[in-house]
């Protein structure tokens, strides 16, 4: 079977171009050739598509192989460039190689063309694989640094939360004692009630800090995320308001997962709240569920191979700027005005998802919206009866 190869041929002679093409075909290649003979045509060809190799004559009327080589290397330094000449000798070959050509072949020795092309294609594939590995390693290192930073912040947040919780408990307890001792109509009763409300708010912040630090105790059970979304749909609509349309795209055959139902409701509420804030002029909030299988050969950094239940919450809002995207799960990070948020919503989501053995990823485009995607491991366990009712199945 012939090996396909895309060739950009810089050659002023159509006969010579056909000669080179036939030589490649004779040696087992199936060349898709684009021929150019001017600087402008070469530039247009490089812009139009990708090529496996450039084969260039050394001297042409009004255009030279040296000029072609410089232009090609500007577009893609790794694109193999082979010079084929009918008259030039060793001196020009050395000059071309020093300028960046991969090889220099005389037209009288075209039997060298196919082996040289084979060598350069293999080298090009190796370079591409090295770049892929390097990019994957860089991404893995970035995620590791981010994970370590979040772990450190989480430990700090958890320690502060537990100590702070004791203080909040005292505030709430003494507030209750004072209120019980006050006669009806006491002029100071409203002030004490305000202290108690502040204490409850502080307790909620503490709970979110604990969720982010992943030190809370989750009561995991077999759940179906479709049922959770349907049960909370009315609350979603009240939360986002009438200007936002909620679309559901739920897989009717969705697998089960193990999670704390109340905490997953908190995840949905926080993501819905985040979407609402991103769409002040209205828009669409889309909740999608589906089953996902990650194979070993397609294993990325986010998910080990396995079966997952995917939950996606997508909005059509303003989007998240690229320069702050890596910080959105940090506790207390917020872009809202003072008094409009303390930056624990998404960090709480992150903590709950990670403690549920899941992952969360975000994709966003400025002016076109944001999508948060959660993957939770599938469980083959069946849900237990709830208060005597038969378990519902998706």
Structural class: alpha/beta
In terms of DSSP E residues, the strand content is: 15-25%
Number of helices: 10
What is the gyration radius calculated from CA atoms?
A: 32 Å
What is the total tally of β strands? 14
Q: Which shape, going by the Cα principal axes? A: elongated
Distance between the termini: 49 Å
- Poorly predicted runs of 5 or more residues: 337-343, 387-394
Order of helices and strands: EHEHEEEHEHEHHEHHEEHEEHEE
The percent of residues in helical segments reads 40-55%
The major beta sheet can be summarized as:
7 strands, mixed
Please tell me the overall pLDDT.
Answer: 80
Primary descriptors:
394 residues, five-stranded parallel β-sheet, 14 strands, alpha/beta, seven-stranded mixed β-sheet, disordered C terminus
Structure explained in plain terms:
It contains 10 helices and 14 strands. By secondary structure, the chain is of the alpha/beta class. The strands form 3 sheets. Strands 8, 9, 10, 11, 12, 13 and 14 form a 7-stranded mixed β-sheet that branches. A 5-stranded parallel β-sheet has the order 2-1-3-6-7, with helices on both faces. Strands 4-5 form a two-stranded antiparallel sheet. Helix 5 packs antiparallel against helix 6, helix 6 packs across helix 10 and helix 9 runs antiparallel to helix 10. The C terminus is likely disordered.
